[in-house]
Amino acid sequence: MFYKPEDGHGLPHNPFNAIVTPRPIGWISTRGSDGSDNLAPYSFFNAVAYVPPQVMFSSTSAKDDRGDTKDSVANIRDTSVFCVNIVDADMIDAMNVTSGPWDKATDEFTKADLARAECDTIACSRVAAAPASLECKLTQILQLPGEANFVVFGEVTGIHMRDDCIRDGRFDITAFKLLTRLGYRDYAVVTDPFELMRPGD
């Protein structure tokens, strides 16, 4: 099968995000200029550079009470900071609650019954029990072709790791249930990592 996205795929469901899988989930916490906290998961998320460490996530829809975007991007526009929390599958129900189309006054930490902790290098909350959290300062927001498509880039200014996830000097993703996003409504847990030496290593 071959199709051009502009012509449509003819399938019951769009296959695009099922092809590009698995994807890490960035559970993005932000704080509004009014001091209110927000938390939402984004599966268009990844690391993009080592030195200095940098990450990105993209938001692809909008809410009526935020104009051209969603709460996360709107808050980052105002404050220039955000925190990426890594998702443990044990928190999947809470993560799913935070994905709802709540109004901007809703505090998703409270709604999902999640403990929060204050970040160290930025004015923002993080998920206290997350396996790891990346405190970030905004470097740029790019608008992509298409309605409401924004990519947010940030430099990591602080990194939190749960002590039980550090084993033999490494951050061990098998110490928890690392949740990833597949296509459609599907998710997976990483259970079988392995090492591979590159030529020249």
UniProtKB/TrEMBL annotation:
Residues 18-173 form the Flavin reductase like domain. It holds the Pfam family Flavin_Reduct. InterPro entries: Flavin_Rdtase-like_dom, Split_barrel_FMN-bd. SUPFAM superfamilies: FMN-binding split barrel (SSF50475). One of its GO terms (molecular function) is FMN binding. It comes from the Bacteria. This is Flavin reductase like domain-containing protein.
